[in-house]
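Hi R.,

Here's the chain you asked about this morning:
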Amino acid sequence: VGSSGSVSLSLRVQGTGGSSAVSKCSAAARGYIQDRFLRLLAGRRRRRAPLIHRGYYVRARAVDHCVQDFLLKTQSLSRTQILSLGAGFDSLYFRLKDLGLLHHTVVFEVDFPNVAHQKATLIKGMKELSALVGDTGGEGLGAITFSGEDYKLLGVDLSELSELEQTLEEAGLNNEIPTLFIAEVVLTYMENTRSDALIQWAAEHFPQACFLVYEQVHPEDPFGHVMQQHFSQLNTALHSLAQYPDCEAQQRRFLGKGWTECSVMDMNEFFTCCIPENEQQRVQTLEPFDEYEEWHLKCSHYFVLAASKGMEPSWTPFLPISRHAGPVGMAGSVPAAVCARLSGIPGLRRYGHHSVLIKPNVILTTGGFGEEHGQHCRMRNFHVLSKRAGYWEAVCVTQNIPDERWGERLYHTVSCLSDTLALVVGGRTSPSSAGLGALWLKFPKTCNASGPDDISVELASLQPAAKAAASRWRHSTTEMTFKGEQYLFVYGGRSAMEPVLGDWYFLHTPELSYTEIAVEGPVPESRHSHSACSWEGGVLIAGGLGAAEQPLGSVFLLRELEHGFQWQTIDTHPPLVPRYSHTAHVHEGKLLLIGGVWFHASSVPGVTVIDLITGLCLDYVINVEHLEWPLMLHNHSSVFLPNEKELLVIGGGGNCFSFGTHLNPEPVSLSLSSILINH
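And here is the predicted structure, written out as tokens:
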């Protein structure tokens, strides 16, 4: 809503409202929300991506949850009101009327005059809408653009408080009866002094009132930076964020402006705690979906707030939730720096790829989705980095691929079996695609110090029993030994049919024969996007995303016994914060976890060091002051160089909801020497 009432700003803000109506309409068309009125009000119809559908689903669900709770708690009263601020082309009134929920409630909607006039014209011109509302002919009085018995549509700039108050009075708003205010991504477009004044005015003038807010939060982390930049480019800056950067600040804001009760949760908390499990599952299976990181990041950057005063019984639409014990305590920091001479080298702006050390100081990167020649696409070109005289540089590679589609894959694994041979396992093209099988990558024996200048690719044949091992993505493939023999251990992941897998395969190398080996102990719960490392002949599995799309905090060791293996839990203290989409390395009995996504919205994961002997678990923040761009540490790859105690982060990022795609522009070096000595 306009910060100054200026025409150009109001038009830009209205643009965001129109775009949101189109997105809600698309979500309804795909079955996320049941709302037959959206298509009548939205005008344009466009199909949005599954990530956008989920985002608008959880938004609509949060608003409906609170509105219906208000109507339920006040159903015994003779009269109530709903006042929707910046309502745009929302269908709330028509939905509630159609469901028979407005027996004694009048709905008032306020938006800019031209929006209100457009909506009034739409309603009058459509039988389906006008029949529900019943035109009483009271419009045309000043700012009232439409007037029905239980529906009033007002054209007024919210930032002009005295004008708003006068118009509401003319339209018949009654200060003495319970009133629900709704502000769905509205207050943040106003100057803070004006939105604060509106919040305080509502508390002072309405003895029994509730206030529902849905908007953005957490501007300072990498996703928050991309989100803010998007709205700035639209010239619709988010004003609330600087002064009220988190849920706690928003709660203090309302409690300090006359509201006596206030509960707030981010949308990860709302989705998990307020939506029944069967409904969560329904939504998770509506469309092929594989953008978990961006979905959870979007949800941690939006909140729903319910404030009230004078309500008997008190209005608390959310059950109290047990939040994680405050922010994650940090034991120190790790400096991040861009690698000299690597800036601007094309080919490493990508995510969902895999980078692996194929010999000392030579890193091969394959697959993923990224940027090539200014276009976003699945990356089919291999990329080699080589370290010479202390500096990393890119090396040109010739690829011999009989079928170009083999190279285009995301979320695969690459295991280096010798200095001339590596194995690619699994991966996907689209989320509905079947697994892509396995490939051999062959490097010439005479490969020079700077790395291979020629890589040939061949299809790897797997026995029928092992085919399923390569028909997955977001899995792990780890080198291990059993009775002195070398194996690859393929574990977890997901497939086109199964949203999460918990099975495993032992493949004897190099011929990849499928081998049955006995495994005892409690089986870890199914997961994908976890990490896996070789350690003492066995495999360490950490974190991941579980069956209900919830991050996991467990660490398991698959340990060699005389006749097979045993799953053992590694207890960490303090407990490891659940996470997924991180990378991991082992160094001298320490498990290092790099980045990832967790539900702790107060910070983003940096580097976590777990002592595998004592279980001590310490978190370190990554110091990014020397980087000129947001460092997104999910869907990245990392390579650990033990001699230098240096970790190279390659790629990472993703599709940031509707705010654009962010790809880390260049590799970043993390110096771990201080934390590995201190630990």
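One quick note: The longest strand covers residues 209-216.

Cheers,
M.
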